[in-house]
UniProtKB/TrEMBL annotation, chains A, B:
This is Alpha-glucuronidase. Residues 88-108 are annotated as: Disordered. It comes from the Bacteria. Residues 96-108 have a biased composition (Pro residues). Residues 503-727 form the Glycosyl hydrolase family 67 C-terminal domain. Pfam families: Glyco_hydro_67C, Glyco_hydro_67M. Coiled coil: none annotated. Residues 178-502 form the Glycosyl hydrolase family 67 catalytic domain.
Length: 730, 730
């Protein structure tokens, strides 16, 4: 724990010590036939843990005769894949459950379950309902048994036991079923192969270089990818797109010349239940294929994509599919040929269909050459206007990937109405783990509470169906999957790089962790997830560590919001510093469509139906009425929907201008209080980690102070209203 | 003149056709002994011109017997170096006249002058007063005679004849003496060897790459430098610093490892009377020499610089000296050692002294980490506060290089009071030919009128001594040199790159031309200089070309000012686009010390003694009183010196806010009118040049419109005052 230690890659939430409770036990593992590389990972994890912590492991080979009951029950932990699932498991995560099969004869694994639980659980009863990612955990007669639907479910069940720690081995407990709500739990990497002159190696990356690429090619040494895959598997992520959605020339060739390298990456993700995807250029037939067009209606274009997909699957049989940013911020797309986005997406989907692949088609399409003088055009409307009319037109292996808000990953936005407008389309909600607009991983900003709000927001069917239900194909908020509605899932931009701590700011690891856990269970309490993360990442630490981390992190998103742009108006970030730091007018006279319209009298964007852009009308009831009416619009979104005078009184009882003044000053007081709180942990956590966080906190105080003073001064100069609190203003 | 011609380097103001009047004549040249490479250039120019245009040339070798009088007088043009001057000339321009000599016996060249002018001029009479750069032109008996003080003067006289064209060969005319006011007429290149990640190959360069460097080294092919040297010699430039004042690691090594390459460059400048300078890092003893310090008081440091200078002069005997940016924007300097800038400058001066070299030490020193909240600190005060107390402390081979305004090359600034505050210091005023703040050579912005105003501004001695006099060591505005006061000169940042037209915007060539001509004669009429440039650059063109160029260019600086930041307040440029385009608050909350303090009531910086930063008090009378008093402060500098309400009525009779509205709208109308005016010249000028200008005019209209609309909207939103003209506002 000396600061002069050679830097090593930080283990994040999987330090060896986190495996001590499991690793000191006697463990029996039976992955069954066909469990493949994921089953092998489960065995390896148990072997590694028991070797380190004094436990033991028995691995029951497929078809091997069961030991006698006493022998089975002498184990503290039994990990077993239920028979039917085990037989069908291919080793890689599946997004679409395979078709049902005829009943099969009993299998030794089912018998093992019955013996291990002393009859408390009979796998044969539960197995038909066990989807591949699902597991059941029970504690009976002093033995903890995890029965999974497939090897992936067993991996997730194993990590459930790791997370529980000693609690997994306490009193007997009835069966608990666990399964992910969303079939797709994905991370997108905006990593470039060639360093982009403005964006760098990783677009919107704040954690060093790429773990995939360096020196203009896929890395020879992909050991960081292997470690990353293990981290992702432990939190249930099952899909990763490995290159930037802005597909430049070199990256486009991953689809062709680079396939051998992509296969090397896929080989590392596969043992952790993660399928590999590529972002592809819609112009590939022209750029890579030398065709004169990329028109979806052109048979040569269709043939080119089909052949390209054939080559990919010949190399990577469990390849996930494509991610596509089309007709967006300069990327090519179907509009160039007079085709719509269903035409475009289906073109790729039909090439992937024979192989079981999926297209993730982004709904982030808007006019990025807007005239700031034109107040009728509203970027917030764009995704709905483009996509809602296409509902029902997308093939069933297309997932429409929709940013959670209508603008672009702001600290606070209303939920995208597109998510409620396309019941016949598979949808994924897109989050941003990388902190583009939330402090560049220089600021503590725990985003679990934001994502929790997004996923549980009751957007549809008179506020009875939340976002998680909408993207997971659930008929209602708390239902189990019915499989009848189109299901997509959750995706997000990763925050990982080749940084020693993975994420630049060590505490930003918690965002990656919480993302995976919320994608699995959107109703999880984000503060409880943070607690989980603390327990894993700092095992055995002094209780002050846990307390202080909660102090810093629990409310950090709201604190960040409080010192940056007020009341949902968004942006006010510095274009010249890649969206870092304050610049109130930074986007006010630009082409990007993100304005606040502040003048000497008031501020905000009128998006009402009555007098504004009509965006509020894109929502179903009751939200259209809630947002339309100044009396019901929530304070935190007031300026997103309304242009109001500075003297407007919020529901909170204060005026808009005084809220601007107070929140910013109060928030900086909070951030300042974190510095001594963190300093007090010196010696209680790893020195290098402590120093890194301390360094970033210093910058956060500086930056938050700059936000406070610029925003307060800007609005004082504009409004002329003095700050009633009398705090300094410039 | 077809647009499909292979691009060639544009000849700028030296096309072959410009030499036709001279080239068709019978010319006699007598450069005399010791005229060296500059004398050879004169001969070469005449040979080239006469070969192209049917004339003839007779070269009288040093010591060769005079032809008979009739033979001499059969020539149309006689170019001759006066005897004494010719004997002492070393070939390279000298900045300090050599000490006087004892009278010499008559020389054949003196007799030649008498014969050629039929006795109208006797060189022996004039020669003692002929400084090396001086020439006398006379037309007598049908022969034009140019007598120069040295080969450099003869080169300048030759180009005087070229500029005059046929007028040089008209009626007999009495002798006209011409000489540069300033001994130093310099250009600084902010060229980098390594491409800087932000600034590129040429910092603040808008004309492609560097003519000196490419691919991380000095170019093998320096033919563009040779052409450039010829252009500079033709307008009297006699000094060039070839690398960026921000000296990075690779560039620092020019002083040591790179000397052979610097010598290759110097060899190309030498024949045109131009001495070569290097920008050097004050930290060189540490960075290059491996010493532990760069402290000026350290004997090892002194010895290091002396040895470095010895090596430079062993390689380049006529090397000019060093340019230094110290303690400025992150560059190292003497402050680190508790020394002042006289200590720093004299350190280098003493190393150069044995070799006749000069240090150009920049006065651009200020706090670039200013807190925008602090209104007491004033960047405008910085140069005076730092340097005025040091007057008299600088060695006489130090020239203090002072930007013309107290901030940074803005479109409009008051003249730097430093220029009046240091009578015992050699001063150079620094201008900026490259259009950093004046439109990046995308906008037509003829800067001759600005520089004319600067150089003839009667700053000192109760408004009797102008800037040109102050930097040239003249006791009064129109006096001839006395040699008694410290003399520096004029320097500027070049606007040249490897662009086909040298300057990106072809019409920006006029700025380089006018700079050289004004450095020679600050009282020249900038519109007349533009006319001169047009005549040379477009010889024989349709008269509409001349008329249109005057329409576009004569007032273009004032037009640019009128659509950008108002009334001398400065900046409002976009930091994210390298100072191009509008961003009213772009520097308002930054560390750079360049603010406008606009609020809902008013705008401007209070720099008065009475209530402001006191900057106005740095001026001598009458300027301190003029600027201090709102009643006398000129409109165009109002907001530089005063914070006023928007309703303040200007001397022009309009309010500040209405001026903001009107000027910007009117100026865009002017720019728009240029497009059809230029289009009408299609076919009358070179097609490629026409197309380039047309393309840039389109961008100028777009950009000027953006300036107009952003500035008008910003101030309307802030002030709430409607535009009385009713023109659109947003």
């Amino acid at each position: 724990m000396s600061a002069t230690d050679t830097p090593q890659v930080h283990p994040a939430w999987l330090p060896d010590a986190a495996f001590a409770p499991l690793g000191s036990r006697r463990v029996l593992v039976a992955v069954g036939p066909g469990a493949g590389p994921v089953g092998a990972t489960v065995v390896d994890e148990v072997r590694r843990a028991t070797a380190a912590h004094g436990g033991s492991v028995t691995v029951l080979a497929p078809g091997e005769a069961l030991p006698d009951a006493a022998s089975v029950r002498s184990h503290d932990l039994v990990l077993v894949v239920a028979s039917r699932a085990a037989e069908r498991d291919s080793g890689a995560a599946r997004q679409v459950p395979p078709p049902g099969r005829a009943p099969q004869p009993p299998h030794p694994n089912d018998a093992l379950v019955a013996v291990a639980t002393d009859g408390a659980l009979v796998a044969a009863d539960g197995a038909p309902g066990l989807s591949p990612d699902m597991f059941v955990r029970v504690r009976a007669g002093g033995t903890t048994v995890v029965v999974a639907g497939a090897a992936t479910g067993l991996l997730y069940g194993l990590h459930d036991v790791v997370r529980l720690g000693e609690d997994a081995f306490g009193d007997d407990a009835p069966p608990v079923r666990d399964l992910p709500v969303a079939p797709v739990r994905m991370l997108d990497h905006w990593d470039n192969i060639d360093v982009h002159p403005v964006m760098g190696q990783v677009e919107r990356g704040y954690a060093g270089g790429s773990i995939f690429y360096a020196d203009g090619r896929v890395r020879e040494d992909l050991s960081r990818v292997a470690d990353y895959a293990r981290l992702l598997g432990s939190i249930g992520i099952n899909a990763v797109a490995i290159n930037n959605v802005n597909v430049h020339r070199t990256e486009a060739r991953l689809l062709t010349d680079g396939l051998a390298d992509v296969a090397r990456v896929a080989d590392l993700f596969r043992p952790h239940g993660v399928r590999t995807y590529l972002s592809v250029s819609f112009a590939s037939p022209v750029v890579l294929g030398g065709l004169p067009t990329s028109d979806p209606a052109d048979p040569d274009v269709q043939a080119w994509w089909a052949a390209a997909a054939d080559r990919v699957y010949a190399t990577i049989p469990d390849f996930g599919g494509f991610v596509v940013k089309a007709d967006s911020e300069g990327q090519p797309g179907p509009f160039a040929y007079g085709r719509d986005h269903a035409d475009g997406a289906n073109l790729l989907a039909r090439a992937l269909r024979p192989h079981g692949g999926t297209v993730f088609w982004r709904a982030f399409v808007y006019n990025h050459e807007q005239d700031w003088r034109d107040r009728r055009t509203d970027r917030a409307r764009a995704a709905y206007d483009h996509f809602a009319p296409l509902d029902g037109r997308f093939d069933d292996n297309v997932v429409l990937q929709v940013k959670y808000g209508p603008i672009d990953f702001q600290t606070r936005e209303p939920i995208s109405p597109v998510l409620a407008a396309m019941p016949r389309t598979r949808l994924a909600v897109e989050l941003q783990v990388t902190q583009e607009y939330t402090g560049h991983q220089k600021h503590v900003c725990y985003l679990g509470p934001l994502w929790s709000q997004v996923l549980t927001f009751p957007l549809a069917e008179d506020a009875t169906r939340d976002v998680a239900a909408l993207v997971s194909g659930l008929p209602g908020r708390r239902d189990t999957p019915s499989g009848e509605l189109p299901a997509g899932g959750v995706t997000a931009v990763s925050n990982v790089g080749d940084d020693e701590f993975w994420t630049g700011h060590p505490l930003a690891q918690a965002n990656l962790y919480a993302y995976g856990r919320l994608a699995w269970d959107p109703e999880a309490d984000p503060v409880a997830l943070l607690d989980e993360w603390i327990g894993l990442t700092f095992p055995g630490a002094d209780p002050r560590v846990r307390d202080t981390l909660h102090t810093l992190m629990d409310g950090s998103w709201l604190t960040y919001e409080a010192y940056t742009a007020p009341l949902g108006v968004g942006f006010m970030v510095d274009p010249g510093r890649m969206h870092y730091g304050p610049n109130v007018d930074g986007y006010e006279y630009s082409k990007w469509g993100t304005y606040h319209f502040a003048d000497r009298d008031g501020i905000g964007v009128d998006r009402t139906v009555a007098t504004g852009t009509g965006y509020a009308g894109q929502y179903p009831s009751p939200w259209r009425e809630t947002y339309e009416d100044l009396a019901t619009c929530p304070d935190e979104l007031l300026l997103f929907f309304h242009h109001v005078p500075y003297s407007h009184v919020l529901h909170s009882g204060t005026t808009v201008i005084q809220h601007v003044y107070d929140s910013r000053a109060d928030a900086v007081d909070v951030v300042e209080s974190w510095v001594p709180a963190w300093d007090a942990l010196r010696g209680l956590v790893d020195d290098r980690l402590h120093a890194r966080v301390a360094e970033r906190l210093t910058e956060q105080v500086r930056s938050a102070t700059e936000w406070r003073d610029q925003v307060r001064s800007y609005f004082f100069r504009k409004s002329g209203v003095p700050d009633a609190s009398g705090r300094p203003i410039y």
